[in-house]
Amino acid sequence: MTNILKAIKNIVENPIIQVRDFYSGRNRANSVGEALENYVKDVFANSFNEQEAERNLKFNEAFSYLGNQNNPPDIILRNGDAIETKKVQSLTSALALNSSYPKSKLYVESPMLTQACKKCETWSEKDIIYVVGCTNDSDIKYLWFVYGDCFVADKEIYERIKNTISIGINSIPNVEFTETNELGKVKRVDPLGITDLRVRGMWHIENPHKIFSYLNVADNSAKFQVICLMKTEKFNSFSDEDKNSLLNLKVDNYKIADTKIKNPNNPAQLIDAKLITFKVL
């Protein structure tokens, strides 16, 4: 069973910076965005150099669900975490989440999930990893792996806003409403009944590179840098074998450290966390 620790080990042992060239040469990507998505899959499935048939078998072993851009998440690890991949071309760029608010965890009852996602395995709640790649037109500069509960507040914070807006829209008199997963959908707005209105949320959240700038881990001189952040309790939940495989790695510019991060529900409190960094100079 794959997990974040095995993925980080795969990157450290096989860093691929020029992702577009790597995947376009295998006819798997036409853009750096597609290449990043393929890279994340291969990192978790350990399928970098496999032929397509063997790669599909490895994906089947590693993943219970592979999604699309319109319905989160992008990946669910079999009996493991969910993954959402985001590409930015600037370290100051916010992450565009579209109509899905940020998630500290993924819940099966979320209306934004497809039935295929809900039924991919027996589950009710999953931890979610946000994978954020900062790229130019060909290379990855920074690659963040950060768990949602390290920087996203509990779902009630976001649902309160969403529900208040929906209730306000639905209180407008003399209009026809339609059931929707969006903030609201109004039918037959005009006297002829030929105009509809869709009200959609467009959620954004700051880039982890900016959110966690107080950790001072970014190295602008590096050609490529991986930064992985999770709560200490999450790190401790993995098997001793997987933890030791990372702790015992002897590689230049690779480090695992204890740190403290702000509680996303109460910034006055600090949470124990593990910070894993690796860079290519």
| Overall average pLDDT | 90
Percent helix range: 25-40%
Gross morphology is globular
Radius of gyration, CA atoms, in whole angstroms = 20 Å
Compact description:
With 281 residues, this protein is of the alpha+beta class. The protein is built from nine helices and 14 strands. The protein is globular, with a radius of gyration of 20 Å.
Structure description:
The protein has helices spanning 4-13, 19-24, 32-45, 52-62, 115-118, 155-170, 208-211, 232-236, 240-247, and strands at residues 63-68, 71-77, 82-88, 95-98, 105-107, 125-135, 140-147, 176-177, 184-187, 197-199, 203-205, 224-231, 254-263, 266-280. The protein is an alpha+beta fold and 281 residues long. It has one domain.
Question: How would you summarize the topology of this molecule?
Answer:
Layout: H1 4-13, H2 19-24, H3 32-45, H4 52-62, E1 63-68, E2 71-77, E3 82-88, E4 95-98, E5 105-107, H5 115-118, E6 125-135, E7 140-147, H6 155-170, E8 176-177, E9 184-187, E10 197-199, E11 203-205, H7 208-211, E12 224-231, H8 232-236, H9 240-247, E13 254-263, E14 266-280
Parallel strand pairs: 3-6, 7-12
Antiparallel strand pairs: 1-2, 2-3, 4-11, 5-6, 6-7, 8-9, 9-10, 12-14, 13-14
